[in-house]
Specification:
about 190 residues; mainly alpha
């Protein structure tokens, strides 16, 4: 029993039989066309798969570059936010310092006004003593009384600033909570 080699619909075992040259050429042409068609049928899907792999690689690369860009944008935005937060804190603190200086100047101006009033009254009292309208005792007693008031105001301002005034906020009094100063059970 002869082995049949099927290709292009021909039995190649029969090719060994004498045939005409035209038939042999036709068989060879048909076999070559069949092999070419089979190669194309097998190669076309692999070419399509290769193109798909290349396109997938391009998409993966593009996704990676987009991810890197988004990471860079998030980092840049975070840095910008941190810079903004630091500058906001700086501006807020500078505003507090400016307020502190302004209030300090107002407090100094208040004391200088008190001194001006004191010296104005002293000049008037000394003028009245010179004109013998007031006696020495009443003039020096009045000056002493006013001097005690001026020194009391000065002492009050200095002690308040050094002991009670909040160092960050000029217009606030700094109060320390003393847990030992709390009164316990008073009903007993």
């Amino acid at each position: 029993m002869p082995v049949n080699y099927q290709s292009a619909g021909y039995d190649f075992a029969l090719l060994s039989a004498p045939t005409t040259q035209a038939q042999a050429d036709q068989i060879k042409t048909d076999a070559a066309n069949y092999q070419n068609n089979e190669f194309k049928n097998v190669f076309s899907p692999s070419l399509t798969a290769s193109d798909s792999a290349i396109n997938t690689g391009r998409l993966v690369g593009r996704n990676a570059s987009l991810s890197d860009l988004s990471t860079q944008l998030v980092t840049a935005n975070t840095q910008t936010q941190q810079i903004y937060d630091r500058s906001t804190d700086t501006y807020t603190r500078q505003g507090e310092i400016n307020e502190w200086q302004a209030q300090n100047k107002l407090d100094t101006l208040f004391f200088l006004q008190i001194l001006f009033l004191f010296f104005s009254v002293v000049v008037v009292l000394l003028y009245l003593r010179q004109g013998k309208v007031l006696g020495n005792t009443s003039v020096y007693g009045g000056i002493g009384f006013l001097l005690i008031i001026v020194l009391g105001i000065l002492w009050n301002r200095v002690s308040y600033t050094n002991l009670s005034r909040d160092s960050r906020y000029w217009n606030r009094r700094y109060i320390v909570a003393n847990p030992n100063g709390l009164v316990g059970n008073q009903c007993s």
